[in-house]
Fold this protein.
Amino acid sequence: MIRFPTSLEQALPHASTHDVRAGGTDLQDRRHLGITRRPILDLRDLPGLDQIEPHEGGVRVGALVRLQDLADAEVIRARYPAIAEGAGNLANPQIRAVATIGGNLLQAPRCWYYRHPHQRCLKRGGEACLARGGDHVWHVCFDDGGCAAPHASTMAMILMAYDAEVDVAGGPPRAVEALYQTGGDPTRDHALEPGALLTHARLPAPWSSERAAYLRATGRARAEWPLVEVVARLRLDSSGVIADARVAAGAVANAPLRLRAVEAQLVGKPALEATFEQAARFASEGARPLPQTGYKLELLRVSVVDALTRAAERSPTAVAPPPEPTPPEPAPPKGSARKAARAANKAADKAANKAANKRAGPPSARTPSTPSNEPAAKAPGGSQ
């Protein structure tokens, strides 16, 4: 059964008993594998959730905004370039044209044990994380002892670095970072209340003189899940000293990870490669790699250096609030377009006739048409 609510009031009563579908790229895969069989609550007809709009000096992004539309939006590219980079590098063009930011924030992990139809891992209610005793080369290097699958959302990590918040129908708004504080429950991908729906992500205004960059390390150039990904934001003062910093990492822990130790090493120091190299040594603070994921620590360190270097080399992002959207022109009444076309053609014909008469001169100088069997009269003062 598939429900298509047209308002949040219609959707909320079913949110706890149905699989919620936005773009459906992750949900369809899990249904195909038999991981979930619940009825579907399709959100495509909910009004206003596919818009990017100004909000309190920043921007509010609806949960149904497609990732490619997010990457292409001029206001995002100008003011939040790391978001545009991250959204524009996810998966492949076909996925980005369908997947939504809300779905990306709330997607399930990509662990092959979790997605195996005949395995019952810790996240699916089993007694143990099967990846720990098996193949976990893509898994966490910040191990908390529970599920070892890395968090799958690139957008969650980037929005967290931008100090973004989310609006929730059926629950209070909260910071993106708080959205993933599940209290150690391995069966939960996020802390959204049962029966609640994420509706918007809110981005504050960027810093003055801010520079930002996103970087991912993958096993191949395209259509690949990251081994490590990093986002870096820097605010520099007039002398090139770092006044504020945000650095976050993905694919290394079972939640998006803000690297506060790295940030602390950056603030108050010049934006130079030596500063970035020194700060990146603190990227692995608190890490507990699994037997096969120790390589991620060095990959994380160099990725932090590269992301910081890219950010520092860029021009400052736009700070001015985006212009208010121009209201669309009202749709013409049915049939009025055809009437307008006829009126335009009639006016054009009238203008053409008037121009032709003007070129021919006054009526007294024109030769009247006569039957072919009668001689034409001569114009006065002229010859035929």
Summary: The chain has one domain: 2-42+51-119+137-313.
